[in-house]
Design a protein that fits this description.
The chain is globular and about 50 Å long. The chain has 151 residues and is of the alpha+beta class. A 7-stranded antiparallel beta sheet has the order 1-7-6-5-4-3-2. It starts with a strand and ends with a helix. Strand 5 and strand 6 form a beta hairpin. It is 26% helix and 49% strand.
Length: 151
C-alpha cells in the first residue's frame, strides 16, 4: 500500500482554498479530470457519489467517487473520498483545511493507494515511490498556486 501525507501553509483565506474543491472548480486543481458529475447528493454530503472521468494521454478511465467524511466549519474544512480505479486500485484521499488566521490556511493532503488484485499489488510493490511523491507534491503545489490566483 502506498500512503502519503503532505502539509503546507497557503497564504490565502480558508474559503478561497475550499472553493477550489467545489464541483464547478475541481478541474482547476485536477486538470486530468475531464468530467465530474454528481450521481447522488446526500444531505450532509457523506455518502454522496459522483461519476468522474480521468484522462492521461490517450487512456480514459471512468469511476465512481464516494464521499466518506465531510466537515465544513469556519475553522476547519475536510473531505475524504474513495474510489476504485481500473478494478485494480482502491484509492482514498483526504483534503483538510485549517484556518490559521484571516489570510493563512493549513492544507493537509493525505491518502492511500491499495492494490486490490494481483496486478495492482505487484504494481504498488514494484512501482517507484518517487513518481507517486511527484504526483502528490504537484497536486499540493497546484492547489497553492490556484488559491493565490483568486486573491
Amino acid at each position: 500500500m502506498l500512503t502519503w501525507n503532505r502539509e503546507i501553509i497557503i497564504p490565502a483565506p480558508i474559503e478561497t482554498v475550499w472553493n477550489l474543491f467545489q464541483l464547478e472548480n475541481i478541474q482547476r486543481i485536477m486538470p486530468n479530470i475531464v468530467e465530474h458529475k454528481p450521481l447522488e447528493i446526500k444531505e450532509g454530503v457523506v455518502g454522496s457519489t459522483y461519476e468522474q472521468t480521468y484522462r492521461e494521454g490517450k487512456r480514459t478511465e471512468t469511476y465512481i467517487v464516494t464521499d466518506l467524511e465531510h466537515e465544513n466549519t469556519d475553522q476547519r474544512k475536510h473531505n475524504k473520498i474513495e474510489f476504485t480505479l481500473a478494478k485494480t486500485f482502491k484509492i482514498q484521499a483526504a483534503y483538510t483545511l485549517i484556518k490559521l488566521d484571516e489570510q493563512s490556511t493549513r492544507f493537509i493532503y493525505t491518502g492511500q493507494n491499495e492494490g486490490i488484485n494481483l496486478m495492482g499489488k505487484v504494481f504498488i510493490k514494484l512501482g517507484p515511490k518517487k513518481s507517486n511523491d511527484k504526483v502528490v507534491d504537484g497536486f499540493v503545489e497546484l492547489v497553492r498556486t490556484e488559491a493565490l490566483k483568486d486573491l
